[in-house]
Amino acid sequence: MITRTADRLAWFNAAAPAEAGRQLVACCAVDEWAERLVAGRPYRDLDALRAAADAALADLDWPAVLRALAAHPRIGERAHGADPEARWSRQEQAAAAATSPDPATRAALAAGNHAYEERFGHVFLICATGRSAEEVLAALRARLGNDEETERAVVRAELGRITALRLARVVGA
């Protein structure tokens, strides 16, 4: 029996390059990353696709990472739109949003976002899936103490986690 993931992966492997690229850009908003993955098709399974995605992310220069970050809303802010990226962002932040009806926590996240952006010059990125607002806030506060090099490594790792989750959605896992 063929699984939904196998069906979706077969679709992805056979899709026109422009369509496959659109799906990938919703996972990570960097055209050259998506083009590299499209060029690497076919993938035998989700693990192979994720490995290729990780390798492509690792090869991105910092300006490309910044382009990817620009597509993410601030943590605690609702992504607008009906496109896959906005829907996925809302799902990824759902647990943190649901666990934080507390106005003080929301205010602390907003203040932390501002301090982070002032310090590092880009949006605070964290894979929020399954994390409470308090956990996200604690991570944000801890990361404010990072030096630039350390924080860039953390950002790349978080971008990789988010991208891996979104790739699984593309292929139906």
Poorly predicted runs are none
Mean pLDDT: 87
Order of helices and strands: HHHHHHHHHH
Query: Tell me, what's the shape?
Result: elongated
Q: First CA to last CA: what distance? A: 15 Å
Largest sheet: none
Count of helices?
A: 10
How much beta, percentage-wise?
Answer: under 5%
Question: Percent helix among the residues?
Answer: 55-70%
Extended strand count: 0
Radius of gyration: 17 Å
Structural class, judged by helices and strands? Answer: mainly alpha
Protein model, in words:
By secondary structure, the protein is mainly alpha-helical. It has 10 helices and no strands. The protein has helices at residues 4-14, 17-25, 31-39, 46-59, 62-70, 84-92, 94-98, 103-120, 133-143, 148-170. The longest helix has 23 residues, at 148-170. It is elongated, with a radius of gyration of 17 Å.
Any key phrases for this structure?
173 residues; mainly alpha; 10 helices; elongated
Quick gist of this model?
The chain is mainly alpha-helical.
What is the strand and helix layout of this fold?
Elements: H1 4-14, H2 17-25, H3 31-39, H4 46-59, H5 62-70, H6 84-92, H7 94-98, H8 103-120, H9 133-143, H10 148-170
